[in-house]
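go over this:
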Amino acid sequence: MDPVDDQLARCGSSDGSYHLDRCAVTPGLFFIELTGGFELTAADFADPRVRGLREMVVALVGWDNDITSYNKELYRATHYGYPSLQNLITVLAHHHACPTERAVAEPSATR
């Protein structure tokens, strides 16, 4: 499997779409309903527009988390021997043989 596809498969499919039941972002979406004082019905969840919106939110938050946490993960790996980085930025930099700055720009531009 292509390394970029493999990274995307952590929370989704090889076409880059994120599956709601496989990503840690999903549980946080339910807190929006709780704090907002509303609840989506089964019909709401079945609506392709709602599902598409939720998938976009999961993808964007997941990518933003990888961008935001990159420096912390790198520091921990370098100073404390944490396992190798499994971060979208690292995967893109390796895949494209490019500097981190370019790897950060790619998901940012995709947004």
In short: Residues 3-110 form one domain. The radius of gyration is 16 Å. DSSP finds six helices and no strands in the chain.
